[in-house]
Write a structure and sequence with these properties.
- The protein is mainly β.
- The protein has one domain.
- It has a 27-stranded parallel beta sheet that branches.
Length: 317
């Protein structure tokens, strides 16, 4: 009997010692709810309240899911993770700050994080508008799908700021971004890698409305190469340019898309090229400027200046 009680005391003592570490163990899937609490373990039956609360309890490569609509707060991501929220409105109010920051530079393997974001509503409205809805600084890739971003009106004023310091990839699908920009800067999507860095971007089935610029490829940060493909996407109502490339070593291919009601539909600086096919360019002050090339199957009409781009060498194949 003495041994029995001694064994129970030993187990109780061990539980006290191990309990905190077990309680803070990271799991592959966590949950958030509008009525959750961040002191919870983020399980389905005891969800957390914010993404910031859940991410610390989610293992690298894991997933955060939303049980219902809620205000889930801004978050910084430093590891591979997925945030999937298709069951309601997953709100992030980023007044005066960035909505989501991806930066794995402090991890043991910087430039390796793979991040998936789906079903989010990022709103920069407030006394001080948002800086950027999503800001990607370091990682391997960012995938954004079925998401709305709006009112990012404090500098830099981007919907998605893709500014990797290591070679990275951006994939955007079915995303709506509206009302972005601060002063003369800011874009719905800005792809501007750091020095000696290359990047690729694929943007499809998306709508960008109102602001200074729509989709921008920018190598002013010293990027060695930048490739952007845009398909089935609309850039509408931009004060400056719908689709812009500036710097050098940049190629943008736009297909089945539209540039409308902006200052200039497409603009490519020397050292960069935009190729356009099967697209609509209308109601702009100027249709195209700079090194913009056409596959010969676009609809260019109704602009203040209907500049017709030169043909792509070799045409279509």
């Amino acid at each position: 009997m003495h041994r029995f009680f001694s064994g129970l005391l030993y187990l109780a003592f061990a539980f006290v010692l191990l309990g905190p570490s077990l309680a803070h163990a990271q799991v592959t899937r966590t949950w958030v709810s509008g009525v959750g609490d961040d002191v919870n373990p983020c399980s389905r039956t005891a969800p957390c309240k914010t993404f910031a609360g859940a991410i610390s309890k989610t293992a690298a490569g894991g997933e955060i899911n939303c049980l219902d609509s809620g205000a889930y707060g801004t978050v910084t991501i430093t590891k591979s993770i997925a945030i999937y929220c298709e069951g309601g409105v997953a709100g992030i109010l980023n007044s005066g700050t960035n909505g989501i920051v991806i930066n794995d530079s402090a991890s043991g393997a910087p430039g390796t994080a793979v991040v998936y974001l789906e079903g989010l509503d990022i709103n920069g409205a407030g006394t001080t508008p948002g800086l950027s809805g999503i800001r990607f600084m370091s990682g391997a890739s960012l995938h954004v799908k079925n998401t709305r971003i709006r009112d990012q009106l404090s500098a830099p004023g981007h919907g998605i700021a893709f500014v990797p310091t290591t070679t990275a990839r951006l994939i955007v699908e079915n995303v709506t971004i509206s009302n972005t920009g601060s002063g003369a800067s800011g874009a719905a999507i800005s792809v501007n890698p750091g020095a000696a860095v290359s990047a690729t971007a694929l943007i499809s089935k998306s709508h960008f409305h109102r602001g200074n610029f729509g989709v921008v490829g920018d190598s002013s940060g010293g990027a060695t190469g930048l490739n952007i493909v845009v398909k089935d996407t609309v850039a509408n109502g931009f004060t400056n340019t719908g689709f812009l490339t500036t710097g050098s070593n940049i190629g943008m291919l736009v297909n089945d898309s539209a540039a409308t009601a902006s200052g200039t539909g497409f603009s490519a600086s020397a050292g960069t090229t935009i190729r356009v096919g099967s697209s609509i360019i209308t109601a702009n002050s100027t249709s195209v400027s700079g090194n913009v090339l056409s596959y010969g199957d676009n609809r260019i009409n109704g602009n203040g200046v209907d500049a017709i781009p030169a043909a792509v060498p070799g045409g279509s194949h």
